[in-house]
């Protein structure tokens, strides 16, 4: 969708997660929602899940496309110790696009609403919603504020604030169908010569087609399409034809003086075809624009000026304006669907909406059309359930602009259009995360679940099973954090998570997860671990219990390490060898160790696993004077895939280094901090074949220097540790 607009008042921050919010919850270990503001002197705001939102804040969404967004219902509890009656003035700050349900006001300083409480037990609801915009996204966060001024009857006053976050899902996409705007017949009022009116009109039409999943049709030749266009005062119609070939949408536009505006399809018996097969879609449309006497066009596309918009015919005595964008959204809706020239809509109208199961499932009841093919605004049953807005002038929120709604789009499908159900208004809630990584008894753990779809002010619950003892889950932020109890009695914990989005009629979604635990400080998924706590001999035991003993050769000594013992290589003849094939079955992996260099020589190795100079993977602290580097190849040095850094390696101190590979992404860490990545790694340890020369402190190249320094706690994993796990490993 074409994006037009001015800079947003608030600052947006990019989300670091996927095109959806990262959230998590459990039952056992769930952080209780501490009612900080339930104290005697504060008003408490509670959501539909019973959570106090004062500290966490409120999450809203700006869906893809220019559509009425979901509202969230909240409940206010007054201060229990207040002197009643109590008045609470709600005001939104940071944007003019936020709105609250009526009675409320909109202004340049935001939305305002007043609640009055007669006693401490009274609770009052309000609803909050964001008007869409055309800037930002996808998946940015807009930050605003809800201010609550509490005034007691003795005139004691206090003010509280609650953060509001808006997930902006706009994608800046254009409609999939080419649209031809034909102004040749705007010869009566010339209204479309006004650049603002023209821009708002074209944008309003594009807003409809943004939601249609339609590809170009068979080409319509120039002069082959015809439509009747009314003359002034709807007299003396003329016949217009297309003056060029097209394969999408042709819209004939004309301004009149009286008596009304409308849109309509060309009822000429001609329909679009694809590959010669006729469908239900009309080939062209007419749009007639007229303004009430005394009303001037309001054509701004700056959504921060939304509060200034006026619907045509609204009560007005001075400075009256007709909002062009909203007028086009309404009238062109007649052209594309809400008209008796669409056979499918005639059937829908005749059935009173009872023939559309999808609409009934969404709305909760059938939604009939009146004789003019409008959705009635007289009954709240026919207001869009999720936004509270309607196709008319009456709905929950201040009536500034006619808006498309999810309901109106679902009904429009009856005309024969295919909606793009991959757009966020139509995506059902789901849990995206497929599994959780293993944890370690006695070690820190931090993970999140991710979700998408629905109204993303999510609530999570664990309906069965339990979390590992020591872990807690934050219902709002979704973080699963803590230190797993070292005496946790089980080696794995399985639990079923239930996701609820902020649509009360959504069906909860569930998924089961398992967290496996390594015991007593032993990390799971370890292929081999060498603590080097020996004090003599030429071998190092495998602490993982997998029996992969390391052999030490040449000038080595046993010395004090980072934690306990370490092996020290003399820089000329000392090195270690690990068993053949130790990494040959690995795809994803982690190799981590503590290193203390006595001196730094170019191309010395921390490790080098392979079969020679053709196939190998290595980690060097100084590749030709550069920074720490990891490389892997199966075709010699010219075919190396690398993570190169500028990180200089010091001498005389223990440093923790680690390299991970997850899919095609390799990461390099120093002291638990990411220092380099490569997201285009196609080679894996398994690409090297059966590695027979698996060195510690020695290179596959005979001319390279041996390592002059020590190693402690050398580990190989058969999976990629997360960044949080690498930090934990360093800290442990």
UniProtKB/TrEMBL annotation:
SUPFAM superfamilies membership: Concanavalin A-like lectins/glucanases (SSF49899)
GO molecular function, one term: calcium ion binding
Protein name (database record): Cadherin domain-containing protein
Record keywords: Disulfide bond, Signal
One term under GO cellular component: membrane
Tree of life domain: Bacteria
Listed InterPro entries: Cadherin-like_dom, ConA-like_dom_sf, Ig-like_fold, LamG-like
Domain Cadherin, first and last residues per copy: 124-177
Gene3D superfamilies documented for this protein: 2.60.120.200, Immunoglobulins (2.60.40.10)
Coiled coil: none
GO biological process: homophilic cell adhesion via plasma membrane adhesion molecules
């Amino acid at each position: 969708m074409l994006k037009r607009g001015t800079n947003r008042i608030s600052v947006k921050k990019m989300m670091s997660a996927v095109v959806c919010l990262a959230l998590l919850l459990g039952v056992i270990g769930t952080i209780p929602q501490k009612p900080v503001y339930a104290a005697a002197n504060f008003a408490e705001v509670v959501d539909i899940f019973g959570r106090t939102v004062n500290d966490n804040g409120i999450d809203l969404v700006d869906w893809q496309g220019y559509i009425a967004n979901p509202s969230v219902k909240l409940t206010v509890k007054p201060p229990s110790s207040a002197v009643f009656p109590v008045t609470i003035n709600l005001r939104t700050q940071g944007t003019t696009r936020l709105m609250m349900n009526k009675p409320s006001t909109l202004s340049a300083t935001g939305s305002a609403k007043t609640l009055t409480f007669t006693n401490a037990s009274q609770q009052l609801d309000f609803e909050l919603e964001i008007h869409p915009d055309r800037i930002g996204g996808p998946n940015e966060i807009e930050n605003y504020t809800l201010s609550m001024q509490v005034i007691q009857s003795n005139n004691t006053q206090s003010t509280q604030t609650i953060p509001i976050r808006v997930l902006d899902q706009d994608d800046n996409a254009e409609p999939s169908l080419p649209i031809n705007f034909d102004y040749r017949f705007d010869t009566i009022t010339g209204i479309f010569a006004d650049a603002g009116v023209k821009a708002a009109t074209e944008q309003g039409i594009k807003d409809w087609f943004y939601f249609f999943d339609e590809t170009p049709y068979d080409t319509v030749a120039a002069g082959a399409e015809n439509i009747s266009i009314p003359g002034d005062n709807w007299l003396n119609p003329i016949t217009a034809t297309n003056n060029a070939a097209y394969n999408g949408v042709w819209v004939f536009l004309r301004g009149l003086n009286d008596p009304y505006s409308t849109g309509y399809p060309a009822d000429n018996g001609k329909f679009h075809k694809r590959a010669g097969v006729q469908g239900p879609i009309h080939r062209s449309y007419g749009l007639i624009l007229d303004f009430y006497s005394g009303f001037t066009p309001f054509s701004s596309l700056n959504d921060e000026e939304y509060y200034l918009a006026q619907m045509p015919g609204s009560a007005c005595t001075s400075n009256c304006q007709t909002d062009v964008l909203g007028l086009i959204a309404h009238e062109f809706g007649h052209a594309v669907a809400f008209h008796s020239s669409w056979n499918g809509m005639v059937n829908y109208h005749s059935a009173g909406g009872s023939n559309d199961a999808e609409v009934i499932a969404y709305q909760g009841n059938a939604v009939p059309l009146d004789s003019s093919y409008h959705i009635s605004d007289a009954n709240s049953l026919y207001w869009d359930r999720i936004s509270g807005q309607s196709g008319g002038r009456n709905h929950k929120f201040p009536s500034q602009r006619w808006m498309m709604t999810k309901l109106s789009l679902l009904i429009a499908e009856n005309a024969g259009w295919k909606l793009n159900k991959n757009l966020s208004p139509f995506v059902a809630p789901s849990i995206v995360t497929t599994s959780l990584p293993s944890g370690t008894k006695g070690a820190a753990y931090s993970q999140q679940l991710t979700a998408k779809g629905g109204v993303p002010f999510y609530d999570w619950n664990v309906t069965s099973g339990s979390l590992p003892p020591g872990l807690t889950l934050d219902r709002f932020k979704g973080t699963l954090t803590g230190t797993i109890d070292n005496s946790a009695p089980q080696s794995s914990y399985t639990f079923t998570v239930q996701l609820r989005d902020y649509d009360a009629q959504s069906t909860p979604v569930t998924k089961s997860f398992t967290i496996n635990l390594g015991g007593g400080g032993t990390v799971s998924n370890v292929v081999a671990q060498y603590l080097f706590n020996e004090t003599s001999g030429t071998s190092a035991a495998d602490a993982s219990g997998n029996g992969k003993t390391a052999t030490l050769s040449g000038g080595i000594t046993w010395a004090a390490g980072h934690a306990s013992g370490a092996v020290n290589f003399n820089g000329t003849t000392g090195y270690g060898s690990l068993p053949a094939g130790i990494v040959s079955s690995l795809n994803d992996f982690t190799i981590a160790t503590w290193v203390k260099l006595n001196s730094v020589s170019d191309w010395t190795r921390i490790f080098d696993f392979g079969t020679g100079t053709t196939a190998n993977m290595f980690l060097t602290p100084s590749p030709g004077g550069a920074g720490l580097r990891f490389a892997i190849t199966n075709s010699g040095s010219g075919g190396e895939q690398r993570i190169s850094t500028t990180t200089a390696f010091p001498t005389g101190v223990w440093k923790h280094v680690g390299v991970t590979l997850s899919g095609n992404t390799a990461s390099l860490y120093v002291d638990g901090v990411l220092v380099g990545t490569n997201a285009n790694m196609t080679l894996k340890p398994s690409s090297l074949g059966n590695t027979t020369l698996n060195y510690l402190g020695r290179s596959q190249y005979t001319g390279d220097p041996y390592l002059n320094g020590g190693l402690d706690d050398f580990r190989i994993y058969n999976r990629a540790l997360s960044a949080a796990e690498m930090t934990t490993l360093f800290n442990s």
